[in-house]
Amino acid sequence: MEKKLTCIVCPMGCEITVDLDDKGNILSISGNTCNRGEEYAKNELTHPMRQLTSTVGIDGGIYNRLPVILSDNIPREKMFDVMEAIGKVRAKAPVKRGDVILSDVCGLGVDLLASRSM
Amino acid sequence: MREYEIVIIGGGSAGIAAAIAAYNKGCSDILILEKDKELGGILLQCIHNGFGLHRFKEELAGPAYAEKWVDMLKDTDVVVKTGTTVTHLTSDKKITYVNKDEGYVTVSAKAIIVSVGCRERARGNIATPGYRPSGVWSAGTAQKYINMQGYMVGKRVFILGSGDIGLIMARRMTLEGAKVLGVAELMPYSNGLPRNMKQCLEDFDIPLYLSHTVSDIRGKDRLTGITISRVDENLQPIAGTEIDFDVDTLLLSVGLIPDSALFEEAGIELHRKTKGPVVDEHLMTSLPGVFACGNGLHVHDLVDFVSMEGEEAGSSAAKYVLDKDYREACDKRSDGEGDDTLALVPGDGIGYVLPSKIHGSLMEDSLEIKMRVTRNDRKVKLVMKAGDKVIKSLNKPRIAPSEMEKMVVRKTELEGITGTVTLSVEA
Amino acid sequence: MYDIIIIGAGINGSFLAHELSKTECSVLVLDKNADVADGASMANSAIVHSGHDPKPGTLKCRLNVRGNRMYPDICKELGVMYKNCSAFVVATDEEESKVLDKLIGQSNERDIPCIEYDGDKARELEPNLSKNVIRAIELPTTGIIYPWEVAIALMEEAVMNGVELRLSEEVTGIKKSDDVFTVSTDKGNYESRYVLNVAGVYADKIYEMLIGEDPGFHITPRRGEYYVLDEMDKPPVSRVIYPVPGPNGKGVLVVPTVHGNTLLGPNSEPIEDKEANNTTADALSYVKKNVCKTVDNIPFDKIIRTFAGLRPSGDTGDFVIEESKVEGFINVACIESPGLASAPAIAEYVLTELMKGRWTFPAKVEYKHRKPVKVLAEMSDEDKNSLVKENPAYGEIVCRCRRVSKGEVLDVIRRPVGATTVKGVKKRIGPGMGRCQGGFCEPLIVEILASELGIAMEDVRYGSKDSYILMDRMGADASHGKEQP
């Protein structure tokens, strides 16, 4: 069986073809132009992972909101749980890009990082 | 009147890159004028990731990408004025800007780089009929409210246009708890990046209505609902195909247009298709010494390419300031084009080509030509021809109107060629 | 107890309030909308017609001719824009040419300057005039204004001189007993000796509230839809271009605006719903088709907006301006085109002719004049800089399209009859009218309004009271109260 996937690792959006046997085991992966694409395809078929960015309120910043990003992808089905956790956080200026705003978000082993200094 | 070597109008991704490039080429008297309170432009509200893969080989969120550039700029002597809006650009290269501290100031520059970015097409531009309630925004305006000011704009949302900003906002608003009921796209194909189709729509089961448009807008105060209709081959709504949605928010992601106001004021020739200025191989406009880059020149698909174009414009402007021969040759051009000027024109399958002209004698060793195709296709060739003579041909596994195509041509490849060069898509 | 209650703060209500404010009488103006000039006065062709067109012997004819002559001075006194742009009425065939003959005759009878051209001569003056035009007449006294700007200025000066204005108050009932009118609104009751009913499309309903029976005139709004073209250095036309008038009025026009935009429209469609100011695909395409009959090379790619307005069209063929059968209740109704051009003359007619001898309010000894709105884009750099020095907010541009500074926005919020909504700011100083249509400036205007009015961002309205813009603050901010950014 053949499965076609749009790679979301980068803006190139490669179209990846995954060959599967009857039991769903991966026989081959093609169409990706980098190794990350292969990893994406494997994950996507078993446990899709997603990056998530959002904002948190910040005191004393130049704006009301501090953009944040996760240190790594999380299981797709956890996105709303993570959003809820992010919604409860408030940062305080000054922060530096990459500062941990919330560690081990929802016990997923990823941190919430500041996307910028503020 | 203070004269700068280079004044850069607009401190977004194109302008910052232009300043750094010009500085690195040897210019030291550079001024960036930025209207917002910080450098970075629209990137500051683009909190999603996906920036920097080409330029930095890593994937960054918009604000992080901007910050990396701003950090690089800090290592230069470039002067930055934020909170400063340029109100006038004249044909004798005078710039009037205004800010709180200095008031209105007019300066001149040997070279000017216009990197003002683009604006979103609004409802009025597409003349969508119906009422005119609140709750109808271009997607980027909603993005600013949500990501910068921290306010939700609505709870039940429909999106017109499958441009990337619209798709990204579909995901963003869904994650923030809104219900996105669908995305309508006028064309029979999506206009967004494939990854955004996947992670913004498919992930959340948001339906995409291809060949559909919004045909009615309801609500006398706040938006209460919209109607979408399928469109015929002339892109006109077909009666009887209406679907109603009760929504409080309609976001438009129906295209971007270079902000051409300053070019217009300075009498700079505009491109019929891109709506930005006409430029040559050095990204110089019809006004010698005025260069353009970024989304204010033509709308890009990726910010990395905006930065790279900024670097090109910065290098060109530096050359204009520092290289007397080049400058004099450019200034002379205002009297008319020389015999060595090649016109680059779009052929079959190509919407526009940038630059529109190449001055053979001034061209660098190689030049990256950018173009937009007009259709989705697979296994085609991009072909550059002079008459019947094929100058260059490039195999493309797939092409899409939403992606910028590029072709690098060497000066040697254009030797002996005069007149018109056509770029087209061939099977 | 007021001497006079005016129902309706459109252009006519504003002219009446302004005229009355010059005398020692107490006046209350009520309007259901959140701003002055939010109904028919907001959405129309914005032309001060010369008076060539109305049927002889009508009030429309007399008041239009008079109003046209009054406008230039009034606008100058108020410090608002008036541009004497002139107009062509053009004929494309012999039939239409005969109509021009009639208009020439009428203009001569009314002392309205009128010049005749053949098609080629007309095209010399207006190069984009259609090749099909065979003959044209020019009406050089035709002018253009921003109707809402005039109305707001009038109301502002009226309020400065004692008139009371209550917006967002809808009249729900009117009674008269013992020579006293009681006007009830959704917020209270007000008494007066006289009532001026200037309620636009609702004037018939307002009168009906008082008499409880058929008002004798009926208003069926006629909807007119328009396109707005972006500002251009060289707009397609410099004069108003009328086709020859037909049974439905003046036809589809091409109209320059005082800011270099161009209006295309309107069509004319009777609509029962007095609020149905929506645009429709059919009417817009009708407009597109018809403007091409008189003007070539219209840059449709410069369309930045569409809108529709509802004209308060009556069924009597003329304006209804009369003291009603209830003494002291004056109808100023059915003020369709040329209502805008006639407005100053309508107020003059009501006060000096209709109510002559009845209203003997002494003139005010001291009258306060408004200061024109500061528009930096029209000032010299020197003047601008002295303002910036005084208040740095004048150096902060919030609207790129019109180059409007934060200081100017603050001014129009702080003035009497100041802006309270995004649309109110747009009407007074322009952000949102330009090519970005508010895309860049709206979030900034919302911030300024919230902080200036001392309200939360989510309480800022676009225009009407339910036209909210923002919902709740996000995430953890929500629990941090409603502090301002």
Short description:
The complex is a heterotrimer of chains A (118), B (427) and C (485). Chain A has helices spanning 35-46, 79-87, and strands at 2-6, 15-20, 26-30, 49-50, 53-59, 65-70, 74-75, 90-92, 100-102, 112-114.
How is this structure best described in words?
The complex is a heterotrimer of chains A (118), B (427) and C (485). By secondary structure, chain A is α+β, with helices and mostly antiparallel strands. Chain A folds into two domains: 2-46; 53-114, CPE0013-like (CPE0013-like fold), CATH 3.10.530.10. Helix content of chain A is 18%, strand content 36%. Chain A has helices at 35-46, 79-87, and strands spanning 2-6, 15-20, 26-30, 49-50, 53-59, 65-70, 74-75, 90-92, 100-102, 112-114. Chain A has a five-stranded mixed β-sheet with strand order 8-5-6-10-9. Chain B is α/β, with parallel strands linked by helices and 427 residues long. Chain B folds into three domains: 1-120 and 256-336, FAD/NAD(P)-binding domain; 122-254, FAD/NAD(P)-binding domain; 338-427, no CATH class. Helix content of chain B is 22%, strand content 34%. In chain B, helix 1 (13-24) runs parallel beside helix 2. The model of chain B has no long low-confidence stretch (mean pLDDT 95). Chain C is of the alpha+beta class and 485 residues long. Among the domains of chain C are: 87-140 and 220-311, 2-Layer Sandwich (D-Amino Acid Oxidase, Chain A, domain 2); 376-480. Chain C contains twelve helices and 22 strands. In chain C, a hairpin with a 3-residue loop joins strand 11 (180-185) and strand 12 (189-197). In chain C, helix 1 (11-20) packs parallel to helix 8 (339-354) and helix 10 crosses helix 12. The chains are: A alpha+beta (118), B alpha/beta (427), C alpha+beta (485). Chain A binds chain C through residues 55-57, 63-65, 86-90, and chain C through 474-477, 480, 485.
Pairing-aware structural class of the strands and helices of chain A? alpha+beta
Helix content of chain A: 10-25%
Q: Superfamily at the CATH H level of the largest domain in chain A?
A: CPE0013-like
Rg of chain A, please?
18 Å
* Percent range for β-strand residues of chain B: 25-35%
The CATH C-level class name of the largest domain in chain A: Alpha Beta
Oligomer: heterotrimer
The profile of the biggest β sheet of chain A is: 5 strands, mixed
CATH topology of the largest domain in chain B, what is it called? FAD/NAD(P)-binding domain
Q: How many helices of chain A does DSSP assign?
A: 2
Mean pLDDT of chain A: 93
Number of domains of chain B: 3
Number of strands of chain B: 27
Identify the overall geometry of chain A.
elongated
Q: Main beta sheet of chain B, described?
A: 7 strands, mixed
CATH superfamily of the largest domain in chain B: FAD/NAD(P)-binding domain
